[in-house]
From TrEMBL:
InterPro entries: Beta_helix (IPR039448), PbH1 (IPR006626), Pectin_lyas_fold (IPR012334), Pectin_lyase_fold/virulence (IPR011050). It comes from marine metagenome. This is Right handed beta helix domain-containing protein. Residues 12-142 form the Right handed beta helix domain. It holds the Pfam family Beta_helix.
Length: 233
């Protein structure tokens, strides 16, 4: 376990280091790690990154002001649990990398990241629950498209009971689901825009997606609450 410590990356005086290889905390090929009550700040890269690490628990941490990612469950990592963390002013708050499966992101607070939560490349069977995603500069929650084939998408993920508020610019999107993706559930989320409707969209569903289910979401303040692209004939 790593706990009860503050780590300052001295971002202004260091070269950028790719989050696949470094971070305020970095781990590779490990299991059963716990990061608890850690403040990671000002790194020219990622705050906390773990690659091919299984059963990692990150709880009650504060990861902020990084050039890269706040939390980076990396390629092939199984069953990560990210709970009760605060992610502020990063490029992306929580970034599910490649092949992250059976993970849980719950009760986290994401504030003023470029993107709040991003999930893609074979990240399947994950649960994004009861998070606050506030004032993201580009988009709130993003399902990344992948053009490499039908099995490269982030299938069978649940996004439930999150609060996604004031995402992006005048054409901002609260939740953006694109690419060859199937079996996604967006349920009982509160998606709000308080700055005026402009060209803003609550939920955008791309034409290549399949079986994206919307259940009981509360969507307010947008030009269009939901946009579903027309599928090609």
């Amino acid at each position: 376990a790593i706990e009860n410590i503050a780590l300052d990356g001295n971002r202004a005086n260091n070269e950028n280091l790719n989050g696949n290889y470094a971070g305020c905390i970095f781990a590779q090929d490990c299991s059963w790690l716990t990061f608890r009550n850690v403040e990671a700040r000002n790194y020219n890269g990622d705050g906390m990154s773990w690659q091919i690490c299984h059963d990692v628990v990150v709880e009650n941490c504060h990861s902020h002001d990084h050039n890269g990612l706040g939390l980076h469950p990396g390629s092939g990592s199984q069953r990560p649990v990210m709970r009760g963390n605060k992610l502020e002013r990063n490029n992306i708050g929580i970034f599910f990398c490649w092949g992250v499966r059976h993970g849980i992101a719950e009760n986290n607070i994401n504030i003023e990241n470029d993107i709040g939560i991003s999930i893609g490349h074979r990240d399947t069977d994950n649960y994004i629950l009861n998070n606050d995603v506030l004032r993201s500069k580009k988009k709130g929650i993003v399902f990344r498209p992948d053009t490499r084939g039908k099995d490269f998408g982030p299938h069978r993920n649940r996004v439930e009971k999150n609060r996604i508020i004031d995402s992006g610019n005048d054409a901002g999107i609260g939740v953006d689901v694109r690419g060859n993706i199937r079996d996604i559930l967006l349920k009982e989320n509160e998606i709000r825009e308080t700055r005026g409707a402009r060209r803003r969209v609550g939920i955008h569903v791309g034409k290549q997606t399949r079986e994206v289910k919307l259940e009981g979401n509360k969507i307010e303040g947008f030009m269009a609450p939901v946009v579903r692209e027309t599928k090609d004939p």
